[in-house]
Amino acid sequence: MDDPDPGSRGDASAPWQTLSAGFEQARAREDSLDRLVEWPAQRALLGDVTGLAVLDAGCGNGAKIVQLADEGAAAAVGVDISGNFLDVPAGVELLVGDLSDLAAVPGLAGRRFDRILFLQSFGYAADGVRALRTARQMLTEDGFILLTRTQPVRYALEQAERNGTSLGEEYFATEPFTYRHRGWDEQVVLTKRPYTMSDLLNTFSAAGLWPETTVEPQLSAEAAERHPHKQAVLNAYLGILVFKLRPLPTAWLEERLDQH
Ligand SMILES: C[S@@+](CC[C@H](N)C(=O)[O-])C[C@H]1O[C@@H](n2cnc3c(N)ncnc32)[C@H](O)[C@@H]1O
Protein backbone atom coordinates (compact mmCIF):
# COMPACT_ATOMS: atom_id res chain seq x y z
CA MET A 1 0.00 0.00 0.00
CA ASP A 2 1.25 3.49 -0.83
CA ASP A 3 1.87 5.76 2.09
CA PRO A 4 -1.39 7.76 2.08
CA ASP A 5 0.16 10.59 4.03
CA PRO A 6 3.68 11.81 3.35
CA GLY A 7 3.64 13.69 6.64
CA SER A 8 2.47 10.76 8.72
CA ARG A 9 5.74 9.65 10.30
CA GLY A 10 5.50 11.44 13.58
CA ASP A 11 7.70 13.66 15.69
CA ALA A 12 9.73 11.88 18.37
CA SER A 13 7.98 11.58 21.75
CA ALA A 14 10.96 10.70 23.94
CA PRO A 15 11.92 14.33 24.81
CA TRP A 16 8.56 14.72 26.55
CA GLN A 17 9.77 12.73 29.55
CA THR A 18 11.97 15.78 30.27
CA LEU A 19 9.89 18.50 28.66
CA SER A 20 6.51 17.94 30.31
CA ALA A 21 7.27 19.87 33.53
CA GLY A 22 8.48 22.96 31.62
CA PHE A 23 5.52 22.77 29.26
CA GLU A 24 3.00 22.63 32.12
CA GLN A 25 4.65 25.58 33.90
CA ALA A 26 4.47 27.65 30.71
CA ARG A 27 0.87 26.60 30.06
CA ALA A 28 -0.19 27.59 33.57
CA ARG A 29 1.03 31.20 33.14
CA GLU A 30 -1.70 33.81 33.13
CA ASP A 31 -0.60 35.02 29.69
CA SER A 32 -0.10 31.62 28.02
CA LEU A 33 -1.72 31.33 24.62
CA ASP A 34 -3.21 28.02 25.75
CA ARG A 35 -5.14 29.81 28.51
CA LEU A 36 -5.99 32.90 26.50
CA VAL A 37 -6.80 31.44 23.08
CA GLU A 38 -6.41 27.71 22.59
CA TRP A 39 -8.31 26.10 25.47
CA PRO A 40 -11.28 28.54 25.21
CA ALA A 41 -11.57 27.73 21.47
CA GLN A 42 -11.14 23.98 22.04
CA ARG A 43 -13.68 24.05 24.88
CA ALA A 44 -16.23 25.98 22.79
CA LEU A 45 -16.01 23.56 19.87
CA LEU A 46 -16.35 20.59 22.21
CA GLY A 47 -19.73 21.81 23.44
CA ASP A 48 -21.70 20.35 26.34
CA VAL A 49 -20.04 17.19 27.66
CA THR A 50 -22.68 16.27 30.22
CA GLY A 51 -23.09 12.49 30.32
CA LEU A 52 -20.49 11.92 27.58
CA ALA A 53 -17.43 9.68 27.52
CA VAL A 54 -14.33 11.77 26.71
CA LEU A 55 -10.81 10.59 25.94
CA ASP A 56 -7.92 13.10 25.91
CA ALA A 57 -5.01 11.66 23.89
CA GLY A 58 -1.73 13.34 24.86
CA CYS A 59 -3.43 14.91 27.88
CA GLY A 60 -0.34 16.45 29.50
CA ASN A 61 -0.84 16.59 33.27
CA GLY A 62 -4.57 15.90 32.85
CA ALA A 63 -5.90 19.36 33.81
CA LYS A 64 -8.21 19.63 30.79
CA ILE A 65 -9.82 16.21 31.25
CA VAL A 66 -10.28 16.94 34.98
CA GLN A 67 -12.16 20.12 34.03
CA LEU A 68 -14.38 18.15 31.63
CA ALA A 69 -15.16 15.65 34.40
CA ASP A 70 -16.10 18.59 36.66
CA GLU A 71 -18.38 19.84 33.89
CA GLY A 72 -20.31 16.57 33.77
CA ALA A 73 -18.47 14.09 31.51
CA ALA A 74 -19.63 10.62 32.53
CA ALA A 75 -16.28 9.03 31.68
CA ALA A 76 -13.07 11.09 31.61
CA VAL A 77 -9.89 9.36 30.48
CA GLY A 78 -6.50 10.90 29.71
CA VAL A 79 -3.55 9.16 28.06
CA ASP A 80 -0.03 10.55 27.99
CA ILE A 81 3.40 9.09 27.41
CA SER A 82 5.10 11.29 30.03
CA GLY A 83 3.18 9.98 33.05
CA ASN A 84 3.57 13.41 34.66
CA PHE A 85 0.03 13.57 36.02
CA LEU A 86 -1.86 15.66 38.57
CA ASP A 87 -3.53 13.93 41.50
CA VAL A 88 -6.95 13.40 40.04
CA PRO A 89 -10.40 13.18 41.59
CA ALA A 90 -12.25 9.86 41.70
CA GLY A 91 -13.80 9.07 38.35
CA VAL A 92 -10.96 10.49 36.24
CA GLU A 93 -8.58 7.91 34.78
CA LEU A 94 -5.09 8.95 33.68
CA LEU A 95 -3.16 6.26 31.82
CA VAL A 96 0.44 6.11 30.68
CA GLY A 97 0.35 5.13 27.02
CA ASP A 98 1.10 5.94 23.41
CA LEU A 99 -1.52 7.84 21.41
CA SER A 100 -0.19 6.18 18.23
CA ASP A 101 -2.41 3.19 19.00
CA LEU A 102 -5.07 4.08 21.53
CA ALA A 103 -6.79 0.69 21.29
CA ALA A 104 -3.56 -0.93 22.57
CA VAL A 105 -3.32 1.26 25.70
CA PRO A 106 -4.01 -1.02 28.68
CA GLY A 107 -7.53 -0.31 29.89
CA LEU A 108 -8.84 1.09 26.59
CA ALA A 109 -9.41 -2.03 24.46
CA GLY A 110 -13.04 -2.30 23.38
CA ARG A 111 -14.08 1.05 24.89
CA ARG A 112 -16.04 3.70 23.01
CA PHE A 113 -15.93 7.49 23.43
CA ASP A 114 -18.22 10.33 22.38
CA ARG A 115 -15.32 12.76 22.11
CA ILE A 116 -11.64 12.02 21.47
CA LEU A 117 -9.21 14.91 21.81
CA PHE A 118 -5.78 15.32 20.25
CA LEU A 119 -4.83 18.77 21.52
CA GLN A 120 -1.36 19.74 20.24
CA SER A 121 -0.41 16.05 20.53
CA PHE A 122 -1.31 14.53 17.15
CA GLY A 123 2.09 15.32 15.63
CA TYR A 124 3.68 12.76 17.95
CA ALA A 125 1.75 9.81 16.54
CA ALA A 126 4.17 7.38 14.90
CA ASP A 127 1.77 7.23 11.94
CA GLY A 128 -0.92 9.90 11.88
CA VAL A 129 -3.32 8.06 9.57
CA ARG A 130 -3.16 4.89 11.65
CA ALA A 131 -3.63 6.77 14.92
CA LEU A 132 -6.72 8.55 13.58
CA ARG A 133 -8.19 5.39 12.03
CA THR A 134 -7.89 3.69 15.42
CA ALA A 135 -9.46 6.66 17.19
CA ARG A 136 -12.26 6.73 14.60
CA GLN A 137 -13.09 3.10 15.41
CA MET A 138 -13.34 4.00 19.09
CA LEU A 139 -15.98 6.69 18.49
CA THR A 140 -19.63 6.22 19.37
CA GLU A 141 -22.16 6.70 16.58
CA ASP A 142 -22.54 10.45 17.09
CA GLY A 143 -18.94 10.92 18.20
CA PHE A 144 -16.28 13.28 16.89
CA ILE A 145 -12.58 13.96 17.22
CA LEU A 146 -11.30 17.38 18.26
CA LEU A 147 -7.78 17.89 16.95
CA THR A 148 -5.51 20.91 17.10
CA ARG A 149 -2.21 21.55 15.35
CA THR A 150 0.09 24.50 15.07
CA GLN A 151 -0.30 26.44 11.84
CA PRO A 152 2.42 24.96 9.60
CA VAL A 153 3.19 28.51 8.46
CA ARG A 154 4.59 29.21 11.93
CA TYR A 155 7.31 26.58 11.71
CA ALA A 156 8.06 27.52 8.11
CA LEU A 157 8.50 31.19 9.07
CA GLU A 158 10.66 30.36 12.08
CA GLN A 159 12.83 28.13 9.93
CA ALA A 160 13.07 30.80 7.22
CA GLU A 161 14.17 33.36 9.85
CA ARG A 162 16.70 30.93 11.27
CA ASN A 163 18.11 29.74 7.95
CA GLY A 164 17.85 32.95 5.94
CA THR A 165 15.61 31.17 3.46
CA SER A 166 12.09 31.93 2.24
CA LEU A 167 8.69 30.94 3.57
CA GLY A 168 7.94 28.75 0.56
CA GLU A 169 11.25 26.90 0.73
CA GLU A 170 10.63 25.97 4.36
CA TYR A 171 6.89 25.34 4.01
CA PHE A 172 7.51 22.78 1.28
CA ALA A 173 10.67 21.32 2.89
CA THR A 174 10.50 17.62 3.68
CA GLU A 175 13.53 17.02 5.90
CA PRO A 176 13.01 16.90 9.68
CA PHE A 177 14.41 19.85 11.62
CA THR A 178 15.39 20.33 15.23
CA TYR A 179 13.48 22.71 17.39
CA ARG A 180 13.89 24.16 20.87
CA HIS A 181 10.91 25.82 22.53
CA ARG A 182 12.14 28.92 24.37
CA GLY A 183 9.17 29.05 26.75
CA TRP A 184 9.23 25.35 27.78
CA ASP A 185 12.79 24.13 28.22
CA GLU A 186 15.54 25.31 25.94
CA GLN A 187 17.74 22.35 26.83
CA VAL A 188 15.36 19.89 25.21
CA VAL A 189 15.69 19.35 21.48
CA LEU A 190 12.55 18.32 19.64
CA THR A 191 12.70 16.90 16.15
CA LYS A 192 9.85 18.07 13.94
CA ARG A 193 8.72 16.99 10.52
CA PRO A 194 7.46 19.74 8.25
CA TYR A 195 3.84 19.44 7.15
CA THR A 196 1.61 21.48 4.91
CA MET A 197 -2.12 22.19 5.02
CA SER A 198 -2.67 19.59 2.30
CA ASP A 199 -0.74 16.99 4.36
CA LEU A 200 -3.11 17.61 7.25
CA LEU A 201 -6.30 17.50 5.17
CA ASN A 202 -5.15 14.39 3.27
CA THR A 203 -4.34 12.68 6.59
CA PHE A 204 -7.89 13.28 7.77
CA SER A 205 -9.50 11.89 4.64
CA ALA A 206 -7.14 8.88 4.53
CA ALA A 207 -8.30 8.13 8.08
CA GLY A 208 -11.99 8.34 7.03
CA LEU A 209 -12.66 11.70 8.67
CA TRP A 210 -13.89 15.04 7.40
CA PRO A 211 -13.48 18.46 9.00
CA GLU A 212 -17.00 19.55 9.90
CA THR A 213 -15.67 22.78 11.43
CA THR A 214 -12.25 24.42 11.43
CA VAL A 215 -11.30 27.36 13.64
CA GLU A 216 -8.21 29.61 13.73
CA PRO A 217 -8.66 31.20 17.16
CA GLN A 218 -7.35 34.66 17.99
CA LEU A 219 -7.15 36.83 21.13
CA SER A 220 -10.20 38.83 22.13
CA ALA A 221 -9.74 42.61 21.76
CA GLU A 222 -9.59 42.93 25.53
CA ALA A 223 -6.95 40.19 25.90
CA ALA A 224 -4.92 41.66 23.02
CA GLU A 225 -4.84 45.00 24.82
CA ARG A 226 -3.81 43.36 28.10
CA HIS A 227 -1.14 41.14 26.50
CA PRO A 228 0.26 43.00 23.47
CA HIS A 229 3.34 40.70 23.38
CA LYS A 230 0.98 37.76 22.74
CA GLN A 231 -0.85 39.64 20.01
CA ALA A 232 2.57 40.26 18.45
CA VAL A 233 3.23 36.49 18.44
CA LEU A 234 -0.09 35.81 16.70
CA ASN A 235 0.49 38.68 14.25
CA ALA A 236 3.76 37.06 13.26
CA TYR A 237 3.00 33.34 13.47
CA LEU A 238 -0.83 32.98 13.20
CA GLY A 239 -1.47 30.48 16.02
CA ILE A 240 -3.16 27.08 15.88
CA LEU A 241 -5.80 25.29 13.82
CA VAL A 242 -8.69 23.55 15.60
CA PHE A 243 -10.54 20.81 13.69
CA LYS A 244 -13.79 19.09 14.60
CA LEU A 245 -13.51 15.80 12.68
CA ARG A 246 -16.48 13.56 11.92
CA PRO A 247 -16.26 10.00 10.58
CA LEU A 248 -17.03 9.55 6.90
CA PRO A 249 -19.34 6.58 6.27
CA THR A 250 -17.51 3.29 6.81
CA ALA A 251 -18.32 2.23 3.23
CA TRP A 252 -16.35 5.24 1.96
CA LEU A 253 -13.26 4.23 3.95
CA GLU A 254 -13.53 0.54 2.99
CA GLU A 255 -13.75 1.47 -0.68
CA ARG A 256 -10.66 3.61 -0.34
CA LEU A 257 -8.76 0.84 1.48
CA ASP A 258 -9.73 -1.62 -1.28
CA GLN A 259 -8.17 0.69 -3.85
CA HIS A 260 -4.74 0.38 -2.21
C1 LIG B 1 2.19 20.20 23.49
S1 LIG B 1 1.74 19.06 24.76
C2 LIG B 1 -0.04 19.20 24.77
C3 LIG B 1 -0.67 18.76 26.08
C4 LIG B 1 -2.19 18.93 26.18
N1 LIG B 1 -2.91 18.14 25.20
C5 LIG B 1 -2.63 20.38 26.07
O1 LIG B 1 -3.39 20.72 25.17
O2 LIG B 1 -2.23 21.16 26.93
C6 LIG B 1 1.99 17.48 23.97
C7 LIG B 1 1.69 16.30 24.88
O3 LIG B 1 1.76 15.10 24.10
C8 LIG B 1 2.39 14.11 24.89
N2 LIG B 1 2.95 13.07 24.00
C9 LIG B 1 4.01 13.18 23.16
N3 LIG B 1 4.16 12.03 22.47
C10 LIG B 1 3.17 11.18 22.89
C11 LIG B 1 2.81 9.85 22.55
N4 LIG B 1 3.48 9.16 21.63
N5 LIG B 1 1.74 9.28 23.18
C12 LIG B 1 1.05 9.97 24.14
N6 LIG B 1 1.36 11.24 24.50
C13 LIG B 1 2.40 11.86 23.88
C14 LIG B 1 3.45 14.86 25.68
O4 LIG B 1 3.91 14.15 26.81
C15 LIG B 1 2.69 16.14 26.04
O5 LIG B 1 1.98 15.99 27.25
Care to describe what's here?
It is a single chain. The protein has 260 residues and is α/β, with parallel strands linked by helices. It has a single domain (16-151, 196-259), classed as Rossmann fold. Helix content is 38%, strand content 22%. It is built from ten helices and nine strands. The strands form two sheets. It has a seven-stranded mixed β-sheet, with helices on both faces. Strands 6-7 form a two-stranded antiparallel ribbon. Helix 4 (128-137) links the parallel strand 4 and strand 5. The N and C termini lie close together (5 Å). Mean pLDDT is 92; it is low at 1-7. The structure holds S-adenosylmethionine. Residues 13, 16, 20, 23, 27, 34, 58-60, 79-82, 98-100, 119-121, 124 line the site of S-adenosylmethionine.
Short structural description:
InterPro entries: Methyltransf_11, SAM-dependent_MTases_sf. With 260 residues, the chain is of the alpha/beta class. It has helices at residues 16-28, 33-46, 63-70, 128-137, 152-163, 167-171, 197-206, 221-226, 228-237, 250-259, and strands spanning 53-57, 75-80, 92-96, 113-119, 139-150, 177-179, 190-192, 209-215, 240-247.
